[in-house]
Amino acid sequence: MRPWNIKPQSVTARFGAMRSLGMLLLLGSLPASAFAQAAPPTGSSDDSGYDIRDDVLIKTHDGATLSATVVRKKGVTQPLPTLLTFDIYTDPAAFRSRGKDAADHGYVGVTADTRGKRLSPEREGLINLVGMGLLLLLMLVVTLNDVGNLFPR
Questions:
Q1: What are the residues whose beta carbons fall under 8 Å from the beta carbon of 30, sequence distance 6 or more?
Q2: CB neighbours (10 Å) of residue 53?
Q3: How far apart are CA 87 and CA 96, in angstroms?
Q4: Residue 143 C-alpha from the chain's centroid
Q5: Of 2, 20, 102, 131, which has the maximum CB count within 10 A?
Q6: pLDDT digits (tens, 9 = 90+) for 2-61
Q7: Using the 8-state DSSP alphabet, how is residue 38 labeled?
Q8: Percent of the chain, pLDDT > 90?
């Protein structure tokens, strides 16, 4: 016989209940902001201190054209090291923010969009030509249809 006349299961159950109560008190004492998801850091929307070019096209050796955003501090004329990053997600605001962060640390920030945010100039001309041709063809079909409706058979 045990001297305290306590069953082992009840000791475990009491300890588990006390542990749960302790965790509940601990979590209840923390401010709600401790559980809030932190917003990702965003760069300042003030672009006045930077020279930002988001229309740069980079021609690769295999003929592809990548678009890039280039950011450097305004007024800096000496050559600077370049921090080049490639990204598959087209997010101009993130590209600017990343470039401004690089510029703040003494680099020229270049972020290239590997999926091609813009069309290559050669392809853009071809696509415009095909689009204009289809538009003219549609206009011709509509005109012929209208003229045919003027003179019913």
A1: none
A2: 12
A3: 13
A4: 45
A5: 102
A6: 555 555 554 444 455 555 555 555 555 555 444 454 444 444 467 889 999 988 888 888
A7: P
A8: 27
Q: How far is CA 63 from CA 5, 39, 123, 125, 126, in A?
A: 86, 40, 12, 16, 16
Q: How far apart are CA 142 and CA 52, in angstroms?
A: 46
> For the chain, what is the radius of gyration of the CA atoms?
33
Alpha-carbon distance values, 67 to 84, 110, 118 (Å): 13, 10, 6
CB 58 within 8 A of CB 68: yes
Alpha helices in 62-120 (DSSP H): 92-104
**Distance between CA atoms of residues 63 and 105, nearest Å:** 33
Task: Using alpha carbons, list the distances in angstroms from residue 19 to 14, 16, 27, 30, 32.
Answer: 9, 5, 12, 17, 22
- Which two structure tokens, joined as six digits, stand for 52? 């930002």
CB distance 77 to 104 below 8 Å: no
